[in-house]
Amino acid sequence: MTWMMSPPPEEIALEEAAHAVAMILCGLGSTIEFVTTKAHEGSWGMVKYRDPILRDGDLDSYHDPAARQRIDAFILAHLAGQYGRKLLSPQTWRGEDRSTSDYEQVKLVLRHLFPQLQIDDPIVVKFLTEMEARCEHMIGDYLKQVEALSIALLERETLNDDELMAVFKEDGALD
Taking the CA of residue 12 as centre, how many other CA atoms within 13 Å lie in the half-sphere pointing to its CB? Predict the structure, then answer.
């Protein structure tokens, strides 16, 4: 969905918090430099990474466990914002919106992983549906952390990596 005007700050904070939580849960939280609700380069908020999540050759090496972890993390992080909002702010949930910039990033990866298939091919749809279910379950298990991070983002607008992890760990999430 293309926004004509900025969504409410609560929605931006919720989505960015969910993106960050997904990366932490995928074991790549250390790659996060900061998370912010400030508009940046055409997005309403962002999670900034120290280095790209995907490395050269990853998309050609899905069978490699390290590459698969990064690809899955990339996909799950991009899907997470919608599911954070769905679970914590159902009144703003507009249903699955596969036209967002986050979904466009996922579609680019899917086109590379399944080069002979169309996005609506049953194999690709099954893969995406399984990733969406995995994402919704993952975010659902850590709603308390998503909510705590979104509140911190509303209060401070930007959290660096240390602040992010401190909020995430407050509830014993990684103990």
Answer: 22
